[in-house]
Write a structure and sequence with these properties.
alpha/beta; seven-stranded parallel β-sheet; about 25% helix; 60s Ribosomal Protein L30, Chain: A; disordered N terminus; five-stranded mixed β-sheet; about 375 residues
């Protein structure tokens, strides 16, 4: 695909909103309008003045583009020198920052209400439709670009599909709020691998779950790898943290949070008891003598169900299993007795998210 190098710092972008893949830009210098064409086999035709937008007129988008020439520039600190924990506490006690990767994931985060503080993009990304449409939504937000020799010094930049974005976290909802109208929820107990957390969220969003709850030992769903693996679904399905609060007073607000030091659920007791108090029957994914198949008729008839999945290796704590109403397992063959927690979640969500009266139509 052709790209236009050395774009000026400030230019006007004309986006064809009705034909994906078509736009041009004007660097505000008379007579120097340039056109970026996409391959003909993609069915795109170039956009000329006065054509192609939803209103039938050119739509101008001004970009706050800033070229970075030094890897040590402070503008790159959040991308190159701050770790996930430092970003999390960046504005403490207010919610901090996270880094989203790729136009698709950034767009889903923005759609969920997260505001960008800055973008970092390879220059050629500015000529790609999805990225251009995203940047047009935030014309005043700094868009940092740099030469390849600078960008490639960022760890894993080749995996980001050419764009990063520093975004503000929002306060997390309470467990009561996200479970209020939920029929099927997942509860993750100490799942520490961000790849597994991201994969579980992607399956939960795709397979009819209404919310995800996490214990404090879980990896943060907004960590870069988790969000990337989830394809941005961590911004689409409601989630929050839940923790054990033995003896917690009923008047304490212990689930609504800031995204940094998160306050948790007001119900006393362990996570199982808290979900039961919210009206759910609980099912532990574990291999026990009393385990029943995930397609057990009694389980499938439950109107509200919370599915508990445990940490990699050790699985759920014995106390959690003992407290649940059901212990369920996936029937397997060839002597295999378990699956990775992310794979197991997909199988369980498909079965349990398809319970009578629960499964959503594809058009919904």
């Amino acid at each position: 695909m052709p790209v236009v190098p050395n774009l000026p710092n400030h230019f006007t972008l004309f986006v064809n909103l009705s034909r994906p893949g078509e736009f041009c830009y004007d660097d505000t210098v008379p007579g120097r309008k340039k056109l970026c064409r996409f391959p003909a086999d993609k069915g795109a035709r170039p956009l000329f003045a006065g054509k192609g937008t939803q209103t039938g007129r050119r739509r101008k988008h001004r970009m706050n583009r800033i070229t970075i020439t030094d890897f040590a520039a402070p503008e790159l600190d959040v991308y190159a020198r701050l770790n996930e924990a430092q970003l999390l506490h960046y504005y403490e006690p207010a919610p901090g920052l996270f880094i989203a990767e790729s136009p698709k994931v950034i767009t889903r985060a923005a759609d969920a209400g997260h505001m960008p503080e800055s973008f970092l993009a390879a220059p050629e990304m500015l000529c790609k439709t999805e990225a251009a449409a995203l940047l047009a939504r935030f014309p005043d937000t700094p868009v940092y670009t740099a030469a390849p020799e600078i960008l490639t010094r960022l760890t894993g930049f080749q995996l980001t599909r050419g764009m990063l974005c520093a975004m503000r976290r929002r306060e997390l909802p309470s467990a009561e709020k996200i479970c209020e109208n939920a029929r099927t929820v997942a509860v993750l107990e100490n799942v520490v691998n961000p790849t597994n957390v991201g994969a579980i969220f992607r399956s939960a969003a795709a397979l009819n779950l209404d919310a995800v709850l996490l214990t404090e030992g879980c990896s943060d769903p907004y960590y870069r790898r988790a969000a990337r693996v989830s394809m941005g679904t961590v911004f689409q399905i409601p989630w929050t943290y839940i923790r054990e609060r033995p003896g917690a007073g009923a008047g304490e607000d212990s689930s609504a949070g800031t995204g940094n030091s998160v306050q948790r659920n007001p119900a006393a007791g362990n996570s199982v008891e808290q979900l039961q108090a919210l009206g759910f029957r609980t099912a532990a994914m574990a291999l026990e003598e009393r385990s029943v198949r995930i397609d057990d008729p009694a389980v499938l008839q439950e109107p509200r169900l919370a599915v508990f999945l445990g940490t990699e290796g050790d699985g759920l704590a014995a106390r959690t299993i003992a407290s649940c109403d059901y212990t369920i397992m996936i029937p397997m063959s060839h002597g295999v007795d378990s699956l990775n927690v992310a794979a197991a979640s997909a199988v369980a969500f498909w079965q349990l998210g398809s319970r009578p009266g629960v499964r959503k139509e594809e058009s919904e």
